Amino acid sequence: MPKYTLAELAEKFGGSVQGDANYIVSGLASLPSATKDDLSFLANGQYKKFLFETKAGAVLLNPEHASHYAGNAIVSDDPYLTYAKISYLFDTKPIASAGIHPTACIADSAQIDATACIGAYVVIAEDVVIGANVNIGAHSFIGARCIIGEGGWLAPRVTLYHDIKIGKRVVIQSGAVLGGEGFGFAIEKGNWFRIAQIGGVTLGDDVEVGANTTIDRGALADTILGNDVKLDNQIMIGHNVQIGDHTAMAACVGISGSTKIGKRCIVGGSVGMAGHLTICDNVILTGMTMVTRSISEPGTYSSGTSMQTSSEWRKSVARFRHLDEMAHRIQQLEKKLIELEQNSQGSD
What we know:
Elements lengths: L3 E2 H8 L2 E3 L5 E2 L1 E2 L9 E4 L6 H4 L6 E4 L1 H4 L6 E3 L3 H9 L11 E2 L4 E2 L4 E2 L4 E2 L4 E2 L4 E2 L4 E2 L4 E2 L4 E2 L4 E2 L4 E2 L3 E3 L4 E2 L4 E4 L4 E4 L2 E4 L6 E3 L4 E2 L4 E3 L6 E3 L4 E2 L4 E2 L4 E2 L4 E2 L4 E2 L4 E2 L4 E2 L4 E2 L4 E2 L3 E3 L4 E2 L7 E3 L8 H11 L2 H25 L1
Parallel strand pairs: 4-5, 5-6, 6-7, 8-11, 9-12, 10-13, 11-14, 12-15, 13-16, 14-17, 15-18, 16-19, 17-20, 18-21, 19-24, 20-25, 21-26, 24-27, 25-28, 26-29, 27-30, 28-31, 29-32, 30-33, 31-34, 32-35, 33-36, 34-37, 35-38, 37-39
Antiparallel strand pairs: 1-3, 2-7, 22-23
């Protein structure tokens, strides 16, 4: 395992050392599980209770928390970001060597940079272009005319249908499918008739796609993800969707076709969006929000009800059924109240 002094880490990633600058750490761990050889961090105030119990050799802290801590620390204005940068020093992910595995099946017309790594049983179709330092994991399929920019990393079992364009440094996790047929049908005499999906998928630079996430190809133009878009696992992106730069989505989000999402949006887990909507920049959607209309003002939006005990929830559901009736009765009462006030004023 690599070893670093606190002084080395502070110099490389910013911050100041509180305590022994020559203290050596050789791993990262959470506050409850850390040992004397580990560097830990406190980024969320609800974990502050563990700070004074931790056995960590050092902790990444903001100035406020550091002022109450007697142990070794690296003091940073953003401990979580500093932790994120340091984490790569301790990453155990294997580094693949350049070359093509003998079991890979590659079309003669494919162009593969000499620095790329092509894993076992990978299939690469006609006219594919693969850039420098790309890694394609075992059993992946790269369809005809796909383009993968330099520094891309595809885990095992990634599927790219034909005409998928991927920018630089894109990460795609196992089971992801890009370019599947969008859900488009016309009806003829009661039967569904599939519409050919003749667009593709375009991903910008520094995009990440989680495990088992699906991104449908466009019906006519491409489905597009901008630069630095981050998608968690098991997300569904419908055909012709556009997602702006730096937008992030948590697991199990579902985006219906032709919806356009702006830049720097944050979408919580299990959010659903209807089709043909427009979401402006800088919108936050909390978990399980159901979006049925466009959003034109930045801000935070929510829907649904918060967690209750089952007995409370059943009572609430019973009341929901009577909301329309209750609203009508309130209107009638308000009308009678106005009449009473008018009669009272007339008698005076």
